[in-house]
Write a structure and sequence with these properties.
Blueprint (H helix, E strand, L loop, with lengths): L3 E7 L6 H8 L5 E6 L6 H7 L3 E4 L6 H14 L4 E4 L8 H8 L7 E5 L6 E3 L3 H18 L11 E4 H6 L11 H12 L4 E5 L1 E3 L10 H21 L1
Parallel strand pairs: 1-2, 1-4, 2-3, 5-8, 6-9
Antiparallel strand pairs: 4-7, 5-7
Helix pairs in contact: 5-8
């Protein structure tokens, strides 16, 4: 068994998942796909590539998919657990660069908002929304992380075991913020590695009003709790 595993949540990614799996096959790692009942045949494409797929009957959310995948990875004894999007926005070349930093921190974040980080093909609105979310989270929670919403990460198994991931409640991109917050509260060290984030060419973004609202509500509640505890 390899030391590292990539956990990839999928829902209707048939147009992009194949090329991603081809590139990942060149690396010294295993791949686990958590598919939320994609009607477009995503799971079948993954199986055709020889990749293990956990098929779920319904769209249960990003956070739920990662919690399930992370627990499987921990149970199997992997040392490094990687999270990565299936839509082509995360580059395997950046993953190679991130893996070179394994051991330097408990959590490595592929960051868009540090020096040499870059975004391609985003609208100005999406860019402002992402920056505002990160600024809001850092203002209320003092995380000290430039890209708290980033979904391109490498966790050490030792850190994940301390984080009680089954109690992480967020489902949308707020999941990434909650995981960052929990990692710091458990004494984890975090380093950010610059990446080039490329907006998906195929499929439809999973971003919605409900996902954005979840983030605002949870960050505000955590911030108020932090103030009360002080």
């Amino acid at each position: 068994m390899n030391k590292s595993i990539v956990v990839i949540p999928t829902y209707n990614e048939v147009e992009s998942i194949g090329s991603l799996l081809d590139e990942l096959a060149t690396l010294d790692l295993d791949v686990l796909v958590i598919d939320d009942g994609s009607p477009d045949g995503t799971a079948q494409i993954c199986k055709a590539h020889g990749v293990e797929v956990i098929e779920r009957s319904a769209k249960l959310g990003l956070g739920s998919a990662y919690r399930a995948g992370f627990q499987i990875a921990l149970d199997r004894g992997y040392e490094n657990i990687i999270e990565m999007d299936a839509d082509g926005s995360h580059q395997v070349s950046d993953l190679v660069a991130m893996m070179q930093w394994i051991g330097s921190a408990d959590l490595l974040i592929g960051s868009r908002w540090v020096a040499d980080g870059e975004i391609k093909n985003w609208s100005k609105f999406r860019e402002l929304l992402s920056k505002a979310a990160n600024r809001y989270a850092n203002t209320l929670l003092s995380l000290g992380v430039a890209d708290t919403t980033a979904g391109f990460r490498i966790y050490s198994a030792s850190l994940l075991k301390k984080m009680d991931i089954h109690t992480i409640a967020s489902e949308g991109y707020c999941f990434q913020i909650e995981m960052t917050r929990r990692a710091l509260s458990r004494g984890g060290s975090i380093a950010e590695v610059p990446i080039t984030f490329i907006e998906r060419e195929h499929g439809v973004s999973k971003m919605s009003f409900a996902i954005a609202l979840e983030a605002v509500v949870r960050i505000t509640a955590w911030g108020l709790l932090r103030i009360v505890r002080r």
